[in-house]
């Protein structure tokens, strides 16, 4: 039943997507996302190179590495509303390597509403080998200048479950080069991270900052904190863990557009 709901959600996004033409792209992204392009109607392609580091590798409200943080390097190319990317992550204190390779298609549904559909292949090498295929979808509303709500959806073919994040970002241009963006995110897990509980996973909040070093180079960073909710707490009880469920982490990225 949950698989049918997930497939229905993606199908609905697809139907809406192909009824409109893309001319904008959301700036809302995670700490190693490639969704930083602006969609162009011209025939010129855009390219991106990004180098970054996070103090901890946090995803789905969980710390994926026992020791240290993770370095990220990204290469991406976008032609109009199609984005193809490859990301490489390497642990800074333990043996861990992750490859994320994918493609995204961004479409404007209305003047202020856009959606992005994508596919991603994940390959990781650490204490254990892991691989998965993921289908992704997002909706972003830009009708309010100072507040941007968005919903991100990820379906794991391997796990047979999906993960949903509802976010609010509020961007403030402090100068013509510096932008500060506080945000909050509520996440829900449906057999994506765990199989034993479906519902609230974690609540996350933080602040992101971006400084334009030049027309094509930007320096960005974030400070974030997660609060564990029922899904993480029940998983921790099964593993006899009672502390360290909330996570605080930070990151910095240098991005070059050309």
Most strands sheet: 12 strands, antiparallel, barrel
How many DSSP helices?
Answer: 2
Q: Could you name the CATH homologous superfamily?
A: monomeric porin ompg
Please report the total strand number as a whole number: 15
Structural overview:
The protein is mainly beta and 258 residues long. It is built from 2 helices and 15 strands. It has one domain (46-257): monomeric porin ompg (Porin), CATH 2.40.160.40. 10% of the residues lie in helices and 55% in strands. A 12-stranded antiparallel beta barrel has the order 1-4-5-6-7-8-9-10-12-13-14-15. It starts with a helix and ends with a strand. This is Porin. Residues 1-22 form the signal peptide. Keywords: Signal.
In short:
This protein has 258 residues and is mainly beta. It contains 2 helices and 15 strands.
Keywords:
Porin; globular; 2 helices; single chain; signal; 258 residues; mainly beta; 55% strand
Please render the helix and strand layout as text.
Blueprint lengths: L1 H16 L27 E10 L3 E2 L2 E2 L6 E10 L2 E10 L5 E12 L4 E13 L3 E13 L6 E9 L4 E9 L2 E2 L4 E13 L7 E15 L4 E12 L1 H9 L8 E11 L1
Antiparallel strand pairs: 1-4, 1-15, 2-3, 4-5, 5-6, 6-7, 7-8, 8-9, 9-10, 10-12, 11-12, 12-13, 13-14, 14-15
């Amino acid at each position: 039943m949950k698989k049918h709901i997930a497939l229905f959600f993606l199908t609905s996004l697809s139907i809406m997507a192909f009824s409109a033409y893309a001319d904008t792209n959301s700036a809302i992204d995670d700490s190693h996302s490639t969704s930083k392009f602006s969609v162009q109607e011209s025939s010129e392609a855009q390219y991106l190179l990004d180098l970054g580091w996070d103090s901890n590798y946090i995803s789905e409200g969980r710390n994926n590495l026992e020791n240290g943080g993770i370095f990220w390097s990204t290469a991406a190319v976008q032609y109009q509303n199609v984005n193809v990317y490859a990301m490489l992550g390497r642990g800074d204190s333990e043996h861990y390597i992750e490859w994320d390779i994918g493609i995204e298609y961004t479409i404007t549904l209305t003047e202020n509403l856009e959606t992005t559909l994508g596919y991603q292949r994940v390959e990781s090498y650490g204490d254990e080998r892991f691989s998965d295929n993921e289908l992704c979808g997002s909706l972003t509303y830009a009708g309010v200048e100072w507040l941007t709500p968005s919903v991100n959806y990820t379906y794991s073919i391997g796990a047979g479950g999906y993960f949903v994040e509802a976010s609010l970002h509020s961007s403030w241009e402090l100068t013509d080069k510096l932008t500060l963006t506080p945000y909050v995110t509520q996440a829900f897990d449906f057999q994506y991270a765990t199989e034993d509980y479906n519902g609230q996973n974690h609540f996350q909040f933080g602040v992101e900052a971006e400084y334009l070093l030049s027309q094509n180079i930007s320096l960005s960073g974030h400070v974030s904190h997660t609060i564990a909710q029922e899904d993480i707490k029940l998983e921790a009880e099964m593993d006899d863990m009672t502390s360290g469920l909330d996570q605080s982490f930070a990151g910095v990225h240098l991005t070059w557009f050309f």
